[in-house]
Amino acid sequence: MKTKLYIFVLLLPLFVSAQERLHTGIFAEGFASLRIAYTQDVEEDENGDAYEDDYLQTTNIQHPYLVLGGKEKEFEISFDELTTEQRQLSYRLVHLNADYTMSDLQEQEYTWGVNRQSIDDYEMSRTTQQPYIHYRFTFPNDALEPTISGNYCLQVFEDTDPEYTLMQIAFYVVDPHVKTKAVVRSRTDIELSGRYQQVDIEVETKKLKLTDPQQITVIVQQNNRWDNAVMMQKPSFIQTGKLQYINERLLIFEGGNEYRHFDLSSEYMKGWHVERIDFDHTYYHAFLETDKTRADEPYLSEQDGNGIFRIHRERAIDSDTDADYMFVYFFLEAEKQWLDGSVYVAGDGWYNRFSEQNRMKYDDKHHCYYLSSYLKQGAYEYQYLFVPAFSEDYSTQKCEGSHWQTENEYTVYVYYRPLGGRYDQL
């Protein structure tokens, strides 16, 4: 079992509903392909010719973060509006509590600059069946930047209606003051080398003025998902300058399975896992190969990016403006409908949110679940999650199976709020 561990530091109150938090997402119709990536410095190849890394620029970042006071990184945020009519859009910076609710700080307490910036960089799509306007902006910049650590989001709005948020992009500002160690193992209180993975964490707090261990809160996230993220406020063991979260039942995660993937980089040739692509003189329609449930299948190791997506069109000068949109059809075999819950297609391409846009329907005639999703050309990773009725416990086991060997990515956030503090430090 191989796992990737990302460790940040911060502090938080209790979680609210996953759908109410200010995580990344689009809330207005007509917008699509919201993406955050690091801007790239121009490098030289082996012949001394300048180039930029297109892969990094077109692949969405799962854990976008900045180091407080650091100048080495900046983001490029981009998105499309599926129209030919450009409008005046702006963005603002919002500071959040660790549970992704809005903090009580005033703007001047966490920003430098003017906290309303227009988005002036936009371009029409080229040679696409679906016309769209591609918007982009970089952050931080000379006009606006954050001044304290914590959770943040950038909210995009129309100048004529600033109270209505069209979309938002979450990111983190880190001010590292503690050392954190984490271990993922297959031995759990539920099973030994079965369907689950146990995460153990140790936080070194020597540099903090810690009078109560509950000033520290730890959040653990698996594969950029927030539906199964876990918050810990009470450590298992307390030592001088050290907090340990060991053998905690809350930190047992489903191992799940490696993500499925498909490639829509070409509208002329079938990419990976694509059965056929049709064109009706207006839109492209990409039919994926029918998927089967993997609940009873043995684990098969396969390289994946744990749900990432990348915008890309073959032979394009610039995929941001040259890639087209396609109706993508997903099919999951099921002999009969599962009446005790619902099935969703999940991954970064849907911002790891759950709504009618990625909820599958059942076809009695063909004995399968199906979904149509309007996506920009590129490569996408996805999985099927089942959620029981009247529940928010999304699970891989019914559709994907669950294995202790799965190569998952865990991110550990450590939050600190000093006595009398008004915000959660990361």
Q: What percent of residues are in strands? A: 35-45%
Shape: globular
The largest sheet, given as strand count, sense and whether it forms a barrel, is:
6 strands, mixed
Tell me the span between the first and last alpha carbons: 29 Å
Number of strands: 32
Number of helices: 2
Q: Which parts are unreliable, with pLDDT below 50 for 5 consecutive residues or more?
A: 6-19, 41-45, 48-56
Average of pLDDT:
89
How does the helix and strand content classify structurally?
mainly beta
Helix content: under 10%
The whole-angstrom Rg is: 22 Å
Report what the structure shows.
By secondary structure, the protein is mostly beta strands. 2% of the residues lie in helices and 43% in strands. The strands form eight sheets. Strands 2, 6, 8, 10, 14 and 15 form a six-stranded mixed β-sheet that branches. Strands 16, 17, 20, 21 and 22 form a five-stranded antiparallel β-sheet that branches. It has a five-stranded mixed β-sheet with strand order 24-25-27-30-29, with no helix packed on it. The two termini are 29 Å apart.
Fill in the keyword field for this structure.
32 strands; 43% strand; five-stranded antiparallel sheet; mainly beta; 426 residues
Provide a concise account of the structure shown.
The protein has 426 residues and is an all-beta fold.
